[in-house]
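S.,

As promised, the nicotinamide-adenine-dinucleotide run. Input:
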Amino acid sequence: MTRIAFIGLGNMGGGMAANLAKAGHDVRAFDLSQDALDRAKAAGCLPMASVGEAADGAEAVVTMLPAGTHVEAVYGDLFAASLSPAAILIDCSTIDVATAKRVTEAARAKGITAVDAPVSGGIGAANAGTLTFMVGGSEEAFGRAQPILAAMGKAVIHAGANGTGQAAKIANNMLLGATMVATCEAFLLAEKLGLDPQTFFDISSVSSGQSWSMTSYCPVPGVGPNTPADHGYQGGFATALMLKDLKLAAAAASDTGADTPMGAKAAELYQRFAEAGHGGLDFSAIITALRG
Ligand code: NAD
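Predicted complex:
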């Protein structure tokens, strides 16, 4: 049993903290939302009154926060608190690579080990404990984080040095955004050419156009597996979050001089869709905008 401080008990963090408690860990949970704290308590975590209180005596601190600014603020609170230098900091939020490197460097300066460990898989996977973690940090740090992450996921993969977990995450999600848009376009073109969507799915899902967006997350209602398309595009992975990740990818591409025209086009389309008031819909709903 490890004493773990868990900060950020939202859509994702709530289920993740519950799975750590279920695995027998002593989970000290904190969130700014009282509702989230109440849910964590019901799931077997011990609710705490502040970041510092949760971190007191913790052997590991897991954070699952919206963006880099929140992570930087919480890490500031952690460094100001009586956090043991023997504790490991595991940030599972999706944030920009530069902030991820900055906070792990700030931790290192205090003699504290930190890893970036963003996740793939949505709220369902967070609740079921079947997330994929991509971890940036030293071999030694990965070895320490691995058993904790394994209690919340089906795969824990070492990406490389600090920051590479976030790099893998934003590159993956840029690919996901672009393939989703392309999959929607292909369905619409096939439809205009007189193909039944189910027939196109049956052909393309076993042909060279196949992708996860097609086979596992089909954007057309009633076609393929059960997806948010079958539920009015509710739940799933929000357009606003996809847009956030595409913007992180665009910023990283600009910083590094990488040419990512498909990622940029996907970002532009999702920006327009979010501005039209659809930020809360699942990202596969972009097909409704392309349909016009
Ligand atoms: P969320 O907004 O539901 O949860 C974030 C939680 O952090 C909230 O409960 C909020 O109150 C809390 N918080 C914010 N600032 C805090 C502070 N200073 N101290 C304590 N708590 C604080 O977001 P989410 O959907 O759980 O996503 C979390 C992260 O996971 C994001 O970076 C997101 O991009 C990433 N992610 C989300 C999904 C998904 O499907 N939702 C999938 C993969 C990755």
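The chain has a mean pLDDT of 96. The chain has two domains: 3-160, 167-291.

- D.
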